[in-house]
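Attaching the record inline, Q. Sequence:
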Amino acid sequence: MLYPRLEPLAGQVHVLVLLLTCEGSIARPPGLLATCFGRWEVAERHFEQALPVDERLGVRPCVVRTRRSYASMLLDCGAASDAARAAELIAAETLGMAREMIRLQRLRERMERGRSGA
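Structure, as predicted:
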């Protein structure tokens, strides 16, 4: 029910005017929803759309969150070729964002468990 409402907005940017903050590309939330439903190609398309927008905006916390979400989706998908791309995405600087650093470390651990077959 939510995805069809979000998908048409994916090319836009979420800005909270009263708080003077930018939450980045609106393409990330539909990517997260598509990931939940196992729609890997759709999710990838949304993350690929969101990442350059966040980078152009220069909103680095949004870039980190989009990279983490994208990497997590790639690991969920489980394709062997996606592990290298996931590793590139989570190698990003986290700007001292403590929660994101923990989340990225968890993704690294997932990757290691996947390599060791655990």
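The chain is about 65% helix and 10% strand. Residues 74 and 82 are 6 Å apart (CA to CA).

More tomorrow.
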